[in-house]
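User: Teach me something about this protein's shape.
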Amino acid sequence: MKYMALIYSQDGTGPAWGTPEFQAMMQGYAALNDALKAAGAYVAGDALQAVDTATTLRIRDGRTETMDGPFAETKERLGGFYIMECADLDEALRFAAMIPTAAYGSVELRPLVVWN
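Assistant: First, the predicted structure itself:
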C-alpha cells in the first residue's frame, strides 16, 4: 500500500538555515532517504518552496480564479512530502517517525486511494 507523509511545521520553528543543527537535520533526511530506498519503500519525496510562492486555483460558476498563497489560513505550513510503498500502516509509521521535522512540527500520514 502507498502512503503519503505530509510534513508540516510553523515558520520560525526548527533549526535555522546553515547552522550545525540544520546540517544535522539534513543528515537525518539523508538517512531516511537511504532507509526508504534500502527497504524498497521510496516512491517520491521532496521539499516545497516557501508558502509565499504558492498559487491557489479554484473554479466557481465556470470561472477559474487564482490567488496568491494558500487558501486556508493556518499557522502550520506544508513544507514537503514523501510517498512510500509500505507493507502496512505500522511500517509507514516507522518511516514517518524518522522524518526529522516530526521533532518540532507534525507529519500527517494518509494512505493513497487505489484506483482499479
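Now, about its shape. The longest strand covers residues 76-85. The longest helix spans residues 20-38. If you'd like, I can walk through any region in more detail.
User: That's plenty for now, thanks!
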